[in-house]
Task: inverse folding
């Protein structure tokens, strides 16, 4: 079992590539959890370092400190990202993992940058000390693609593109149903929409494979 590492404020700031003043600012804004106190000494650990690295990655991706603070508050109080973004429960089965299990799934590619991208997509949230992935199917497919040699960053980028297309498809199906039935029928008829998309994707892949023959 790996021994838990702890850091004084100056060492943590150096490892995170920020100033002590910035670290104090993040702590005052509650972007990181409070340190462990031992008398007048504040001790930080690897969870604080990981949070600081994630903050840096999210800032690089254009997130504001206010938005990051909302995510940090959700993480520290066991709320998941879907709850924060107001996403309704779905048919997808969520998966609970420890940080170590998530890292093992992606063979060292669970970097702060990839974590930030997964947060952007709403794939990841937390519940206490556990990480929650919003969909077992997406988690399994993502880890399978990584094992096939495709970088996780590219898998997540592709997921973002797919999200844009399927949002349009969902809106198209909803408009079709609502023109002829009621709002209450959307949930009942959603398996039909899924079947259409799965069949059309299968046919599209057939067409793409025939181009190689």
Result:
């Amino acid at each position: 079992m790996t021994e838990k590492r702890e850091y004084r404020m100056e060492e943590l700031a150096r490892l995170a590539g920020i100033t002590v003043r910035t670290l104090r600012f993040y702590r005052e804004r509650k972007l990181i959890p409070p340190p462990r106190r031992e008398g007048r000494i504040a001790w930080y650990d690897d969870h604080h370092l990981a949070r600081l690295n994630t903050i840096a990655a999210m800032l690089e991706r254009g997130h504001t400190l206010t938005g990051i603070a909302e995510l940090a508050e959700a993480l520290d109080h066991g709320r998941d990202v879907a709850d924060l973004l107001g996403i309704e429960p779905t048919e997808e089965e969520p998966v609970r993992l420890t940080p170590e299990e998530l890292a093992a799934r992606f063979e060292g590619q669970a970097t702060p940058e990839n974590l930030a991208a997964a947060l952007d997509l709403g794939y990841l949230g937390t519940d206490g000390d556990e990480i929650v992935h919003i969909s077992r199917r997406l988690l399994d497919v993502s880890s399978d693609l990584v094992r096939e040699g495709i970088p996780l960053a590219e898998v997540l980028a592709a997921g973002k593109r797919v999200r844009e297309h399927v949002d349009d498809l969902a809106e198209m199906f909803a408009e079709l149903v609502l023109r002829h039935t009621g709002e209450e029928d959307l949930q009942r008829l959603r398996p039909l929409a899924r079947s259409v998309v799965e069949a059309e994707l299968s046919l599209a892949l057939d067409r793409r494979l025939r181009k190689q023959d």
